[in-house]
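Help!! Second protein's tokens look totally different from the first
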Amino acid sequence: MIHDLFTFSSADAVVAWSATDDRVMGGISRSRMRFHAGGYALFEGVMSLEQNGGFASVRAAVKPPPLAGVTHYVVEVRGDGKRYKLSMRTAGRFDAVSYQSTFATVADTWTTVAIPVNTFVATFRGRRVIDAPPLDAARVNQVGLMIADGQDGPFQLAVRRISVEAQ
């Protein structure tokens, strides 16, 4: 069974998304989530390593999925050949543990990527949190997209939908 968390078929779908880039720590990366008339969202910008930078991200609040037994998060994307992270938060605070899983994209090709829940790693400010509990999909209240890991330069990730899959 699949449940859509976000579908980006209208301009209203990107209103709740906001950028949080390395500018919060002195970097100069910049990103945004905008609607494309083709019926999808674009996570785009420039990731820069200058001034100790190194990440660009967007995020939005979400209600936990109404499904028990979530096994995968599913993203339908058209990438630029770079690697991105899907991130989840379960705490209500802005600066809290984030659960992240990396996925690769194929340049100029729409793909559907199923990311197992058990591959999400707890991080805080880019560092792994060893003693954090595993991701509990029933507690997720924020979803995000990120580019990091030294991938300097412009980026663009088209997104049609973000969903959960349950048994």
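Here's the second one for comparison:
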Amino acid sequence: MNTNYEYITSIKNPKVQHVRRLKDKAYRRSSGEYVVEGENFLKDIPLDVEVTSFFIKKDKFDEFGYIINRHICDKIYIVDDKVMSVMSDTVTPSGVLATVKIDKVDGNIVGNVVVLDGVSDPGNMGTIIRTCTACGVENIVAIDCVDYLSPKVIRASMGGIFRVKVIEKSISETLDLLKNHHIYALDMNGENLYSIDKINTPYAIVVGNESKGLSEKIKENSKIISLPMSGRIESLNAGVSMSTALYEIIFGKNTK
């Protein structure tokens, strides 16, 4: 059980400023930490994830103390409403947040893969991470995407971020990494996914940028597949498209 606490009442405190700066991607990467906020997310952090510090509102300590006591963490800060508000990335702060060490991942891929080709919306990326976790896909390759450690992506992933491996690569690096995979890319002009008898394994499923679609290099090296539309709308967003395709491929369609 943690017993050492420090009280912070000033928004100018260096620890508070550090958390605020972690909203910036470059600072996250240089410091090697990111922020996880809220009871529903913090209670699900696996024990092998390194939590570097906790910040908790004084009047929430009894309510959220069980979260802190799950982890070995020497840096525990008790703060007031004003301090929590300036650190929080939400309109209504829950009263507890943590800084977490960025896990170093290797660049190896084992098994099936989801590839995000320029996905820029954090809600879409978080949704896809969450779906990958639900479907048992552990590998995600991100090409020129929104930062997967941004607060909005973390929230949208609903804890999925702790259960997948995200590898950031260029297009050429990705194609080299997937040289032994069958690559299927989602595009409105592709073959109907539901007309394909089987998906070859190991496979990589690619979804493109929300407005620009797939990169030409990805198209050239992929089998293009699509989801059927009623004709009243041309496309689905990246999160819905990838989620629908994954569920059909993994739970509805045989693979070979």
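Reply: Different proteins will give different token patterns, so don't panic. The mean pLDDT is 92.
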